[in-house]
Amino acid sequence: MPNYLQAGYSGESLTLSNEFIRVDLHKRLTGWGWAELFTHEGKYLGVLDHFGEVMLRDQEIPMRMEADTFERRDDADGVTLVFPVKSMIVQQKLKGTSFDSWIQYPFKEHLLEGEVVLTLPANESCLKLQYRLKSKFNLFVRYVRGPWLKIGADGFGSNKTDAIFPGIEWLEKEEWSSGTDWFKDPWALRYAPHPNKVAIPAMVVSHEGTAVGLSWNPRQRATQWFNYRSHRPQPVFASPNFIDRRNNHLMGLMVPDIESDDHENAILADPPLELHPDQPIEWDAEIFVVEGNSLDGITDWIKRKGMPESPAPRWPYAEALDRIANAYSTRFWREGEGFGSPQHPDSYAPRLPRFLEDYLRMAEQDSDLWRELNRKRDWCMAASRELAAESAGRQETAGSVDAVNAVIAKLTERGLKLLTYQLARGAFPFDPEGRHYRKDDFVVAREFVEPMGLAGDTALDMSMLPTLELISLWEETSDERFREGAVRALDYCMGMTRPEGGDFWETPLHSPNLLAGGHAAIAYYKAYRAFGDERYLSKAVYWIRSILPFTHLWQPDNTPMLYNTKPCFCSSDWYFANWVRDHVQWEVLGIFADSWSQGIDWAEIDKDVDWRRYQEGITNAALRWMIDHKLENWQPHNLPATRDIYRQGLLDDCFADTHNSVTGNYGGMAILPDTIAVNLIALLARNSPLTIHS
User: What highest taxon heads this organism's lineage (predicted)?
Assistant: First the structure.
């Protein structure tokens, strides 16, 4: 007997299974079908509610696509079922009932016909779906639905371990999708987002060690008529299923798609979608099942599909690196002050750009650029030593015993200060009025809306940042107190599964965040390398994988965004920036630049994911973000006065702070490109026998 109770069962069923999953198909009183999904061991997971459904503008009752018969094909690659489907004729079904005399719909024929093909491969944990439908008439429809998956329906219900809709949602336990935890209306609603906002074309819900996902081809032409615009598959996600007001989780695909971000969440099209005779409606999708949580589901999708080819770099790497170096030697330099940003006149200081030492080792040493940068490097180092001596109030001989002891004393003082912040259980708390005060964003948010984080609360990044410092301090001083403090923090965070707390200066503390995941990955790997605990290695791999749901692993035809990343799934200050719409690249660049500087090669550590290609992808994307005033595709946000220096070309070769996934425009701050340069150096070093990293 079926588990799903919201269907009139005819008594006919059949089963497909392999060593991974089982699929039970059932026939309604009106035709095949719906499909129920199980693990191989028999755990019921959910239901594919129908084989398609159409809702007309002029008829209140939706019409399912159903089949009277099916064809079965068995071969060595698996089993395929082909269902010749037709839309239900509602008036025909009312014949002979009490409704026949007073409800008269003008539709007497099947309005849509076609095939739905289900394939269960022999050796894969997925059910492949192919929908090939055609309209038979001129129609105005509110929607045509394809795969419509209800996880937990008439089973574990709306319970879940977690759920991920990449680029949009990362939920845990009882949290609602489209909730106001990290957004305020109208941005909170995102159950049918603009397709460009979806980072990876897959949605996953997990429950007690099993993850179920729905994936699709986001660039597929789902439907188009003549020279009108084409429609891509429109994803719909609701956890719990507040769309149907049911005790389950919804993952589905439909048309029409959302054309602009001010018309999102329209699951009933108004104006309706026009269909014409023989107009095709098509979807290709997969339902997949894996052991683990939702991040394991997303990682499995990447393993099966492969990391996409990175976009071609805007310039060859060596040329791009020289371009950045030249900018630092000219526009980003002031004699007598040092390096800095033209956007911030008071930022110039004798600080060396992160890439400079490696660049000087690898660059052509008889070039004018090399000589100029080498001179500027020497000036900065001398100026820094002089400032340090003035600050210390004395002149120490470099390398002397007194100088070494002074450094160790200063490091020890810093480490002991860090430990005063640590709680007994190992966590480091959030201190918005004290050491975490960077901007007044959360002060404004607290006064006008509500707090973005509470003092004394904690999150992953609150503990990972001091842990990174404690590990380094232990390595430099051998003070066991710092090792013990780091271990307490690492062990406290072992049970965490969602990266939170990065961008704490302007975003809700517990919102999902890429920066927190990257910091945690580096911290746990450094701890594994320093302390030898295998648990830390496993957690390092988990956390570096946690940046994947923030990464755009596809792009639409007309908006280059492959390998762009979201910083977090929230809004800053509740209202002032929408990080589901906008990309930010500096955070992911910083994580991989930090990994390189720490001698961490994720491609060697986690061989199941192609991290080399990933680093190429995010770096090539960043080259795309670099500012060229002649293109006129960047606008400042909160520093409008910089338009003039932008037009003069003084910000050229910086890169933009944000990219709008819907409009394709760049904006925000102009960020100095040193992290791009570090990633370029890492890629050049790993792609050649010459090692420039020391």
Answer: Bacteria
Q: What is the DSSP letter of 83?
A: E
Q: How far is CA 267 from the centre of its chain?
A: 24
Q: Which residue type is seen at 214?
A: L
Yes or no: say if 645 and 346 are a contact pair by the CB < 8 Å rule.
no
Domain shared by 460 and 404, yes or no: yes
Bond from prior residue into 272 cis (ω within 30 degrees of 0): no
DSSP 447: H
State the Cα–Cα distance between residues 528 and 514, nearest whole angstrom: 21
Which of 550, 556, 581 is CA-nearest to residue 658?
A: 581
Q: Name, in order, each residue with C-beta under 8 angstroms of 663's C-beta and a sequence gap of 6 or more.
A: none
Backbone angles phi, psi at 590, to 5 degrees: -65, -40
Determine the Cα–Cα distance for residues 105 and 107; give it in Å rounded to an integer: 6
Amino acid at 229: R
pLDDT of residue 332: 98
Q: How many CB atoms are located within 10 Å of the residue 356 CB?
A: 21
Burial class (CB within 10 angstroms; exposed 0-12, middle 13-18, buried 19+) of 379: middle
Per the domain annotation, does 560 fall within a domain? yes
One domain, residues 285 and 347: no
Question: Would you state the pLDDT for residue 637?
Answer: 82
Task: 328-333: list long-range contacts, CB under 8 Å, 24+ apart.
Answer: 328/353, 328/356, 328/373, 328/674, 329/369, 329/372, 329/373, 329/376, 331/650, 331/651, 331/652, 331/653, 332/672, 333/376
- Nearest-angstrom CA–CA distance, 159 and 151: 10
CA distance 553 to 542: 19
In a domain? residue 1? no
Residue 564 identity: N
Residues 299, 325, single domain; the answer is no
Q: Which of 680, 28, 4 lies closest to 324 in space, CA to CA?
A: 680
Q: Taking a C-beta distance cutoff of 8 angstroms, is the pair 152, 158 a contact?
A: yes
CA distance linking residue 584 with residue 579, whole number of Å = 8
Q: Hey, what amino acid is at 48?
A: L
Based on the domain organization, do 130 and 102 belong to the same domain?
A: yes
| Model pLDDT, residue 395 | 47
d(CA 168, CA 185): 15
Q: Are the CB atoms for 693 and 659 separated by under 8 Å? A: no
- Residue range(s) defining the domain that contains residue 574: 317-686
Angle at 509 between CA 503 and CA 514, to 5 degrees: 45
Is residue 38 within 8 Å of residue 45, measured between CB atoms? yes
Same domain as 398, residue 300 = no
Q: Is the pTM of this model over 0.90?
A: yes
Answer whether residue 24 is part of any domain. yes
**Element containing residue 240 per DSSP (H, E):** none
**Are 352 and 235 in the same domain?**
no
514 and 482 within one domain: yes
Cα dist from 472 to 170, 465, 483, 486, 490, whole Å = 32, 11, 9, 10, 14
pLDDT means per 10 residues in the chain (694 residues)?
A: 94 96 97 96 97 95 96 94 96 89 89 98 96 97 98 98 98 97 92 98 98 98 96 98 97 96 93 97 98 98 96 96 97 97 94 96 92 97 82 54 81 96 97 91 89 95 98 96 98 98 94 98 98 97 98 95 97 91 98 97 98 98 97 87 93 97 95 98 80 38
Q: What angle do CA 315, 316, 322 make, to 5 degrees?
A: 85
Are the CB atoms for 249 and 235 separated by under 8 Å?
no
Extract the tokens encoding 577.
Answer: 């920036």
CB 210 within 8 A of CB 39: yes
Q: How many domains does the chain have?
A: 2
What residues does 246 pair with on adjacent strands?
241
Here the CATH number for the domain that contains residue 45 is 2.70.98
